[in-house]
Request: fold
Amino acid sequence: MSPRKFFVGGNWKMNGNKKSLGELITTLNSAKLNAETDVVCGAPTAYLDFARQKLDAKIAVAAQNCYKVASGAFTGEISPAMIKDVGATWVILGHSERRHVFLETDELIGQKVAHALSEGLGVIACIGEKLDQREAGITEKVVFEQTKFIADNVKDWSKVVLAYEPVWAIGTGKTATPQQAQEVHIKLRDWLKTNVSEQVAQSTRIIYGGSVTGGTCKELASQHDIDGFLVGGASLKPEFVEIINAKH
Ligand code: PGA
Reply:
């Protein structure tokens, strides 16, 4: 048995409306979810309050991004203080879409991680290589570098979940094989052991993201170093329940 509690996050991205998300929430609230799994739903900013009010208390709510300071003249941004104010407790940071569509740098992501943690939010910190980087054989180098920028900004690892999301697998229907994912996860755990501590390496959840479905989740979940998932497309469907329950 893994000492780490299984963790499944849904990332709704910029999808849904009150009607469709309300229906999804009704499905999740009435489903039998394994109590041994931490479940978090990442709602669009406009629906954070709505999601928190409607979702059962056993399901946590995450924002999909935040800024690095508490308030001020930053048009369009939201702060961890605001996220907490509406009852959400997590934030997804460094998602590949933030990195590659909105050109967020490792440095900015690190600053956001530091501020979100200092405000008491849990952080789902995302890393992952692009296809050309995998093909060039530099997957390890890329994910270690991204992890370092995150790790340099973490004091309390109990509030951090590391999400390994190969960019080529996100939204493509091309899930990494359980072996491909496990191989990177164990290297990340080794990196934590060498660069942070043995205790942090053993206790930190390293979750996988990239086209996880009801069909692929069980075998992925059976890998020793895969401690859960970050799920995009399938988190908007009733199938998300199967993924939450993948481990047991
Ligand atoms: P996907 O997205 O499951 O739709 O591939 C995963 C993610 O971006 O977190």
Summary: The chain has eleven helices and eight strands. The two ends are 11 Å apart (CA to CA).
